[in-house]
Amino acid sequence: CRASEGKPMKQRLLVVANRLPVSAVRRGEDSWSLDISAGGLVSALLGVRDVDAKWIGWAGVNVPDEVGQRALTKALAEKRCIPVFLDEEIVHQYYNGYCNNILWPLFHYLGLPQEDRLATTRSFQSQFDAYKRANQMFADVVNQHYEEGDVVWCHDYHLMFLPKCLKDFNSRMKVGWFLHTPFPSSEIHRTLPSRSELLKSVLAADLVGERLLPLWETDLSIELQPSCSLMVIHSFHTYDYARHFVSACTRILGLEGTPEGVEDQGKLTRVAAFPIGIDSDRFKRALELPAVKVHINELTQRFAGRKVMLGVDRLDMIKGIPQKILAFEKFLEENSEWRDKVVLLQIAVPTRTDVPEYQKLTSQVHEIVGRINGRFGTLTAVPIHHLDRSLDFHALCALYAVTDVALVTSLRDGMNLVSYEFVACQGAKKGVLILSEFAGAAQSLGAGALLVNPWNVTEVANSIAYALEMPADEREKRHRHNYAHVTTHTAQDWAETFVSELNDTVVEAQLRTRQ
Ligand code: ADQ
């Protein structure tokens, strides 16, 4: 941190993500209203001390005219946000196309698009070109706002080309990249037509620079060139994802994998696992609010005499919602004594609603829910309440608090914060978490949760039965484990560790260059 009048200045941080954490609505030619959406990343950064963070990203709206762009830029500046303006065509090709149609399913083991291979192949290159162009547009905005000493933290699969663009502009920039999704096995990544170019750009492999020493290598006698190269840390939720990334680089690019990362002709890119967390205090505080307490009481009365099971997901194929509901059906089939004593509340926020595959998923889920409710419902009660909508934060906290069993059946999930949020709200109830072994959270909450393979409907159904009848002392023990993890490995902790690791890496390298 730079000093000013004896006081250390806060570390400046530029957070670059595809979307800004705001919803922008145009009210007039030069007026906008903005709503800050408090997602995981926002609350993570709000809690980080000694950091002066600004966001750079797309505001999610097309603003073709200069008057509108100027007004939006001004309004966003008050929220410490800086917009990247993307036109409709680039959003179509880069965001809907390459990011959501290609990288998202591939990174979640759903493969490349199936519908028309030839058409996909023909459009693939133009989508990849748009992806690179869009990443360069993000880089241009970062470069306009970058000051010496800033840390630049790039987020997610939308911006894998960004480290290279930034490095091309300024090789001394401190750059970190974090992937929120899984990084798949190298055998999956191999199927991507742009597999090598994408990996190389993440590694910034054509960098002219020298080896960056890992922190734990303490031999200060090793010599480095006096100039300090671009620092890139690539980080993932779990060691498995980090390992997959390294093995993709070794198998596809033929580079050397080391315990610290990937080495290319003496240059090392650090690869590490920094698992995300939540702001658990925010949930604890919410549960103390009178309005939330009233809501908890209402829900408790509403479902009196029945155990409450809960699913909260974006309506996405990776979340395994049909698999979850089918497992619940099997449970009801095989445990008739539970039929009027349990209810499953499935809250699913619609997402990417203009994409046919997502529309198909919605209809499929509705059809299964309708069938099960027809089969096991009575005149006064149905076994599944399915809502296609988002809940506000306080309603969500109340729901988590009254839940006996939470069901997370993701087919693949980078981490899954819903499982953390449920645990944070279970101080009183000590409910059971049934968690997919394919969610990153299985690696942190595995000892407290009941881990399941979501594809194995029988196993999930048996776990539901076990969870509902689990003895109180076992519930308490499992909950204690998970609660300790969720309240100590917080979002703030995650962001602070990342920023300080990146800084320490740079300081360490600079110290060594002075030896
Ligand atoms: P997501 O796929 O969005 O995130 P998740 O981690 O579960 O998945 O986070 C979802 C967030 O949205 C949670 O904070 C949850 O409360 C909220 N949410 C979901 N459904 C909701 C509903 N119906 N109403 C209100 N809120 C709802 C991506 C990756 C994850 C990774 C995160 C963070 O796919 O694997 O954990 O980023 O890195």
Radius of gyration: 24 Å
Question: Widest sheet: strand order?
Answer: 7-6-3-8-9-10-13-12-11
Report strand %: 15-25%
Distance between the termini: 22 Å
Largest sheet: 9 strands, mixed
What is the count of β-strands? 19
User: What kind of oligomer do you see?
Assistant: single chain
Distinct small-molecule ligands in the complex: adenosine-5'-diphosphate-glucose
Report the structural category.
Answer: alpha/beta
In round numbers, the mean pLDDT is 87
**Large-scale geometry:** globular
User: Level of helix content?
Assistant: 40-55%
Number of helices: 18
Low-confidence stretches: 205-231
Protein name: alpha,alpha-trehalose-phosphate synthase (UDP-forming)
Family: In the C-terminal section; belongs to the trehalose phosphatase family.
Keywords: Glycosyltransferase, Transferase
GO cellular component, one term: cytosol
